[in-house]
Amino acid sequence: xxxxxxxxxxxxxxxxxxxxxxxxxxxxxxxxxxxxxxxxxxxxxxxxxxxxxxxxxxxxxxxxxxxxxxxxxxxxxxxxxxxxxxxxxxxxxxxxxxxxxxxxxxxxxxxxxxxxxxxxxxxxxxxxxxxxxxxxxxxxxxxxxxxxxxxxxxxxxxxxxxxxxxxxxxxxxxxxxxxxxxxxxxxxxxxxxxx
Length: 195
Description:
Blueprint: E1 14-17, E2 22-25, H1 34-44, E3 62-67, E4 70-75, H2 93-107, E5 117-120, H3 127-134, E6 138-143, H4 148-159, E7 167-172, H5 181-184
Parallel strand pairs: 5-6, 6-7
Antiparallel strand pairs: 1-2, 3-4
Helix pairs in contact: 1-2, 2-3, 3-4
């Protein structure tokens, strides 16, 4: 059986993503959005009947990940998972995907983080905030009081070198309490994407 000819415009182009070298399909400007590319990356790692967390093992004490030209070492506390409601003591696939998406979006010119004020709610182990700071954002990472020790340790470990384009601070934030004024003033700039 002969195959149908494929128009040149329909040929999918794949590029190497970030410093880890994963291949992703390049979206053309006439396609839907970068969200499709993120889901494609996640889907390539998620077979239909896979484990819920394929990138990160909750039993390991540390996750090593290349991002923004740095080898990040994120400490985890798997023993804390036994406490009801505690999920911020380990990394989740969604954090890895979001961090790599930010890196790719900035590298490809789709997103500008340099000089932007970013507040991360429920930062957990701090991977996404670390990557945003490496990409030039002024990041405030927040979480509950009992999660701050691990979060601070990860920020100090991964951003102590002088090659950070942005900055990162850790603050306590309990949902339902009034936030510190510096978290909301000046009002966030929602125009992160270039037009």
